[in-house]
Amino acid sequence: MVYLKIPNMNCGGCAATVTKALKSIDVDARIDVDTALKTVKLESKADVEQISAVLKSAGYPAEVQPG
Questions:
Q1: pTM for the complete prediction?
Q2: DSSP structure class, residue 53
Q3: Name one GO molecular function term (predicted).
Q4: pLDDT per residue as tens digits for the range 10-67
């Protein structure tokens, strides 16, 4: 399980973009987005480097948070 803080994720559209980006590297990923807290809880086979890179590329740089 990976916990992410995405400071510039503000709305449902942002959440959809983040979800689409994460699904592009792991279609079976389980993603729980909370726009109010600007957090994502992610269960994925992708490694943290891949996750960070794809989110940065989508315009949503993320900070990995302690579980």
A1: 0.94
A2: H
A3: metal ion binding
A4: 999 999 999 999 999 999 999 999 999 999 999 999 999 999 999 999 999 999 998 7
Three state DSSP letters for 7-52: CCCCCHHHHHHHHHHHHHHCCCCEEEEECCCCEEEEECCCCHHHHH
- Type of residue found at 40: V
Identify any residues that bridge with 43 across adjacent strands, giving them in sequence order: 30
The CATH number corresponding to 2-65 among 3.60.40.10, 3.40.50.1580, 3.30.70.100, 3.10.490.10 equals: 3.30.70.100
Q: Which residue type does 60 have?
A: Y
